[in-house]
């Protein structure tokens, strides 16, 4: 396993500047021809003041409204900064023909990859029809459940799955179907957070509410057959699906602006904001499962959000890039 896994240096009192949080210009030269997205299932469901996908309502436990879309885009920027502009690590070459993004969300990744490979066909698939209406001419979006039987054709160079598996019930099944529909020698890449708040220097209190939040999320989602921290165990899942050349890059993704490195402070700023929004987004789904009252949820969230905003703990999440190959010959 390779990646940026060493301990993160901590910022000193004079390291952080008020005007330093600007993203790197990884995408300044992207120019595309655009075409319209076909109309599809543009209906939504509403619960607890948040908007969710209507198609297969309840399958995915996180909202799809503007707040959640902003959180997804913040995570996208954070990961680009973390990897110095890499959208993926699978060695697919310079001229792939077909790439599919399962659980595409806002479609940002698919659009950027379409600009990278203008000669390739790029497909983004998601339960929620929240992608832009105007996209590069070589990308299209479809509304579908990625856990259903595959209906997206064969001979894919890359199947990309990002930040999806901790919220669905059958990642092994998705991997098996991906294997069957990749071209011989094609690649799968699974990107995700490890789902465990970590600290290397004992600055995080043992009774931290942030740790408790993740533990409650793991417990509640497990009751629905979902493994929140599955990213830590993807090697076995990929191997069982038949993949070879299984590789992993693991990065430490800071939460907050405590790192010494300016680039990692930006990552931490965005991750902290995304963490705060995640707590508000998923709490209405996990607290009832744990027999917690709305008042208990309200009190816990207030205290946990306060800890997140005021903590001096040097906390982070692992971020995994797992990529593996369908054998070049059966």
Write a brief caption for the model.
This protein is α/β, with parallel strands linked by helices. It has seven helices and twelve strands.
Low-confidence stretches: 25-47, 50-61
Major sheet:
8 strands, mixed
Q: Could you give the count of β-strands?
A: 12
Strand content: 15-25%
What's the assembly state of these chains?
A: single chain
Distance between the termini: 26 Å
- Count, helices: 7
Give the mean pLDDT.
83
Q: What value does the Rg take, in angstroms?
A: 20 Å
Indicate the overall shape.
Answer: globular
Give the class from helix and strand content and strand pairing. Answer: alpha/beta
Topology pattern, helix = H, strand = E: EEEHEHEEEEHEEHHEHHE
Detailed description of the structure:
This protein is an alpha/beta fold and 330 residues long. 31% of the residues lie in helices and 22% in strands. It is built from seven helices and twelve strands. The strands form three sheets. Strands 4, 5, 7, 8, 9, 10, 11 and 12 form an eight-stranded mixed beta sheet that branches. Strands 1-6 form a two-stranded antiparallel ribbon. Strands 2-3 form a two-stranded antiparallel sheet. Strand 4, helix 2 and strand 5 form a beta-alpha-beta unit. Helix 1 runs antiparallel to helix 6, helix 4 packs across helix 6 and helix 6 packs antiparallel against helix 7. The longest helix is centred in the C-terminal third of the chain and has 25 residues. The chain is globular, with a radius of gyration of 20 Å. The relative contact order is 0.18. About 11% of the residues have low confidence.
